[in-house]
What does this fold into?
Amino acid sequence: MPKLSERFHKIIRFSFRNYSSKTETKPKKDVDPCRTFKIYRFGGILSKEQPKIQSYELDVSTCGKMVLDALIKIKDKDPTLTFRRSCREGICGSCAINLQGMNCLSCITEIPPAKTITILPLPHMYVIRDLVVDMTHFFNGYDSIRPYLVRKNDGAIGKTQLAQSIKDNEKMVGLYECVLCSCCSTSCPSYWWNGRRFLGPATLLHAYRWVIDSRDDDTEQRLYELRDSFKAFKCHTIMNCSLACPKGLHPAKAIMNLKRLISGLDKKPVPEIDPGKFKSGGDSGSGKNKKCCP
Ligand code: SF4
Ligand code: SF4
Ligand code: FES
It folds into this structure.
């Protein structure tokens, strides 16, 4: 089953890249650097103005090659334009936007060679102002899966390191790199329509990351909490999320693996080495249900 999905993932990524390169993401040398940026503007709920699309002319040869560089340049001309950004390295996940119909991180996405470039806020999110969307519901969902390591009956927490084999650690590769930008969740039709009860791909990817972590021993409770017809099972494996992820992760595959664990088709592998291996005979049992980050 995973092999099939991996092949499918490669096929859809390949087709998408081919499609995009034929249309607009592949830079062309002879493209006029003077571009029109059509950007969504909204002054907030207290504003008397209706939301609108505002056009800005920009010579992109005067700024860096990423979309965020263009936005910063435009903001120099119009300081009222509002958008989120922080690291400009694709790590903080705060600069997610919808560019030419695709969600992306503006700091690691090159300015497309199209004459007209349309920038909108992330789809199906409440807009606070311009390109800034309300992430409260998204992070409440993330918080609900208890995104931290849980150890029961383990006095070693916070006192000694928890052991993990390289092979067990590799199970989390492709999961812990997620920067919680929400590009995947906001491109998921099921999250659009069932967002109040379906957790969405980003949160479910993290749920799987903590379930599969060999050092976490609250697996049964984590899986039990996801056992309803909405939280995970409203994913229909359409794979929009995996296409949208700017970090090249595969949330749809993580959800598929998670669903197999929830339904009992698969079992969490036994850790290769005992996570409490380095415990130094301290006050065992005193740290019941404590939580900590790895
Ligand atoms: S695979 Fe699931 S989570 Fe991903 S876009 Fe489709 S329905 Fe949404
Ligand atoms: S899985 Fe990818 S798209 Fe989704 S939140 Fe994480 S980094 Fe962003
Ligand atoms: S500014 Fe941090 S990911 Fe883009």
In short: Residues 2-23 form the longest helix (22 residues). The CA atoms of residues 43 and 107 lie 23 Å apart. The first strand starts at residue 34 and ends at 41. The domain at 24-132 is CATH 3.10.20.30 (Ubiquitin-like (UB roll)).
